[in-house]
Request: fold
Amino acid sequence: MSQQSNWPLWEVFVRSSRGLSHVHAGSLHAPDQQMALRNARDLYTRRNEGVSLWVVKSSDIISSDPGEKDSFFESPQGKDYRHATYYKASEGVKHL
Reply:
């Protein structure tokens, strides 16, 4: 078994230009956070397209289950007022 297979898995997020969100670019194995950051730079920003990198241990990410999408994202009963479609625009009010 190789040493690398014991290294933690890291998720890499790249921000391509100022003002934009970080986007998931891929994953890599590295022994620590500094090496993960360096490897992420070398692998995912070869053409100077990145201005910022995030590396996060995969084990530290918590996500919802796509199979439970309907119940997890379902709007609570009686809370329709949270949606803009609940309100009616008043007559005479400009820019609505």
